[in-house]
Design goal:
By secondary structure, the chain is of the alpha/beta class. The chain contains 13 helices and 12 strands.
Length: 351
């Protein structure tokens, strides 16, 4: 697959991970001739995520819904798309608890509508074009539920515990069905908690930074004993490009950061680093972490086994200390990112 001229449709490309994926694609100047971003620009999407990408003549932004089959069909045909990287999703777990229907509509039915538009486009291609086409569905480790010991394998049964993870699990099954039933050349990946620059201020790390900057608070659910595997978003974007080029059709892989942290310990680390950067008292800064009642269906631990992606030839992970420091420094030099966006008072867990 390496060396073919990729013309890629990135759904949710104005989101946190999507923006990093778009940058990665545009770095591949020999192989990527067109990147079309399709994003509805809901609360999680922002043109600020991709403003530095739009000056590239190969990049095109379209505001729209993945469930708009006429629009998707037009984009696929107009730009002769031969790869779809599907990232568009409602992702904030707490929001799914209070408003589950939006997650079912976007993550599940939106994916079905997208799959059907892509299938019809793919079936109209020549045999060689069908062979080289790829549909890469980006999912989450949350579909497996919680694991007390060991690590998630891609063969583990699904046990989603929140409306968010259930909607993603359902989408995964539809992607598999479109491959098994129609032959659509799909790839599916499950990632662990992402972190890095441009993340929505709802999320754990940027919200902790903001709390120190503003003297605010960040709630710690259920004592903060929950464990998450943290993946630097740049590494994730690099992996998705690798998987697009090297993954076998119909496969499912898990990609984690090989870096497990308890929520409490990670919050304390972030807060103390920020306080040190700002010359503040670390003891005072730590007071921004406030104990809170646990949320419903809160998974205890996520951990991903990377043996499959290692066997594929993927071995590139950024050192966590370096990645976290780079992330914190980015937010401290982009304080407006933390203050200009509204509606981020819910999530205190990485997803």
């Amino acid at each position: 697959m390496i060396g073919i001229p990729w013309r890629v449709l990135v759904t949710g490309g104005a989101g946190f991970i999507g923006g990093h994926v778009v940058r990665r694609l545009l770095c591949e100047k020999r192989d990527v001739t067109r990147v079309v971003i399709l994003d509805l620009l809901s609360y999680a999407g922002s043109m600020g995520n991709i403003s530095d990408c739009l000056s590239d003549a190969r990049c095109e932004f379209v505001k729209g819904d993945i469930a708009d089959q006429a629009l998707v069909t037009r984009l696929l045909r107009t730009y002769q798309i031969n790869a779809v990287i599907h990232l568009a999703a409602e992702t904030h777990v707490d929001r799914s608890i209070y408003g589950p229907m939006a997650f079912a509509q976007t993550n599940t039915m939106g994916t079905v509508m997208l799959l059907e538009a892509v299938r019809q486009h793919w079936e109209g291609l020549s045999a060689p074009e069908q062979t080289s086409f790829r549909f890469l569905h980006v999912s989450t480790d949350e579909v497996y539920g919680s694991i007390e010991q060991g690590k998630f394998l891609d063969t583990d049964p699904y046990r989603p515990n929140s409306p968010y993870s259930a909607s993603k699990a359902a989408a995964d099954h539809f992607v598999r069905a479109w491959h098994q039933t129609y032959g659509l050349p799909t790839l599916t990946s499950h990632c662990s908690n992402n972190f890095g620059p441009y993340q929505h201020p709802e999320k754990l790390i940027p919200r902790a930074i903001r709390a120190v900057l503003t003297g605010g608070t960040i709630p710690l659910y259920g004592g903060g004993a929950q464990v998450r595997d943290w993946l630097y978003v740049s590494d994730h974007a690099d992996f998705l490009w690798f998987y697009l080029n090297h993954g076998d059709v119909g496969t499912v892989v898990n990609i984690g950061g090989e870096c497990e942290w308890q929520n409490r310990a990670l919050l304390q680390k972030v807060v103390t680093i920020v306080a040190s950067r700002l010359g503040l008292s670390q003891d005072d800064a730590l007071k921004c972490i406030v104990e809170s009642a646990d949320r419903p269906g809160h998974d205890r631990r996520y951990a991903i086994d990377n043996q499959k992606v290692r066997a594929m030839g993927w071995h590139r992970w950024t050192n966590f200390e370096r990645a976290l420091t780079e992330t914190i420094d980015w937010y401290l030099t982009h304080k407006d990112w933390l203050t200009r966006r509204q509606s981020y008072e819910l999530a205190t867990d990485g997803h």
